[in-house]
Amino acid sequence: MNTINRFWLLLSIIVIGIVAVSSTLSVPSAYGADHYNLEPGIPVQLEDSLPTPYRNREIQGLFRWEQADDGDDLFLLAPRLEYGLLPNGQMAIDVPFEFGSAVEEEGLGDIKADLLYNFNQESVIFPALSLASAIAFPTSDDSDGIETKLTFIASKTVGRSRWQRIHLNASWHFNDDSDDEKRRNYYSGIIGYDVVIIPDLLLVLDFIREQQEKENHEANIFEAGLRYQLTPLTVLALGTGAGIGDESPDFRATVGFQKSF
User: What pTM value is reported for the model?
Assistant: First the structure.
């Protein structure tokens, strides 16, 4: 089975599974809560411009399997703590663990801290705009230096209802101590779309175009995922993705969760 066929097979299984769960669980609807607030990696890389509510505390986590274009496997386990630091801003800390044949030294990855600030609510004409910054510390054996990331985020509803949105993420990455085979500056961009299927279920689609840290390597990835509001405080997410062209990952699959407390 080729990559594209595997992608659509897994997406079909995800849709059927979550819709089946949603039809059997008698959980009150929480439309407009956290499942509508896109978090990076849960289950796709796309992020929206909405911060978590002020003083909200949230534990998040994801597990991802990714197969590189050379056949090596990467398994990522990434717990994350998020806090609504300001009425329009949030902070978060990620502590990832990496395993598999694609990793030279298995174990703790680079610990990351990030901030997001939202500048405005969207209007009829203008999208909601946010700026996110992140710093990854060289806590893994594979790291070469501190890496910073700056991301511009725009989100806009489509039409007069809030059932559909489009998004843009544009990021600049900088590594202060990269070696000769790696870029010091590189860029990535994501365009995405989400739509409410049923009140508790959100479908997210995105396309990623990114320069990789390794010189002369670029990647193109199409992702699809579902975010399900299990309870008013809990979100479950499942996603899959496929690379397009050389140097792009062949395939990725992600499961994630969010829990406010």
Answer: 0.84
